[in-house]
Design goal:
Helix content: over 70%
Order of helices and strands: HHHHHHH
Number of strands: 0
Structural class: mainly alpha
Shape: globular
Number of domains: 1
Largest sheet: none
Radius of gyration: 17 Å
Mean pLDDT: 91
Length: 197
């Protein structure tokens, strides 16, 4: 059991979990939307898919993505345990991963429980992006990655602020923008982890 766990969080293996996380999440979201002609980007939340005829595809995709992201972020935290800023960023990403599992497990039919997990997921994800972005930007060797990371975090935050100000009836647009940007970052970070280890 311990040996199996060590293999999962080995950086070479965990990097693949990091790459699979966004692939699985975006694939399950895309399939769910393709099978839901009623879905509207301006009137719905992505989570509306989790209480529809495609609920199994959507929720299972989020749960598995959260599990894969957890493996990735645990490995990231172990690698960064001697660097307090990157360690905090890794733990924040891990908590975001657990929140994603909660979003998939506790669908909208659970009411406020789902809402809290959803808010926690997106908030922690943006915080993690900003923490890593600031740290990487200050380091000459990772400045480019840092600039992209920080930019992704800021763009995500801006879209959420715009949504909050306009009181749009649907939240799917800031959700997917945040998801796509964070997915791109996780893939870049996974490749970096794989190459370094």
């Amino acid at each position: 059991m311990v040996k199996g766990w060590r293999k999962i969080i080995d950086p070479k293996v965990a990097a693949w979990f990091g790459i699979l996380t966004p692939v699985l999440a975006l694939l399950s979201i895309s399939i769910s939307i393709a099978l839901s002609p009623w879905f509207s980007w301006t009137n719905n939340a992505l989570s509306d898919l989790g209480v529809s005829s495609v609920a199994l595809i959507f929720n299972a995709g989020l749960i598995m993505s959260g599990i894969f992201a957890s493996f990735f972020s645990i490995s990231l935290a172990i690698l960064n345990r001697k660097n307090s800023i990157r360690f905090v960023g890794s733990i924040t990403l891990f908590l975001s991963s657990l929140s994603l599992i909660g979003v998939g497990f506790f669908s909208e039919s659970f009411g406020l429980v789902h809402f809290y997990f959803s808010v926690a997921f997106f908030t922690l994800l943006i915080i993690s992006l900003i923490i890593f972005g600031v740290h990487f930007t200050l380091n000459m060797s990772t400045r480019l990655l840092g600039a992209f990371t920080l930019l992704f975090g800021i763009i995500s935050l801006i879209f959420w602020i715009i949504w909050a100000i306009t009181h749009s009836s649907g939240v799917a647009i800031p959700e997917i923008i945040n998801t796509v940007l964070a997915s791109s970052w996780i893939v870049m970070l996974s490749i970096k982890m794989y190459k370094e280890k």
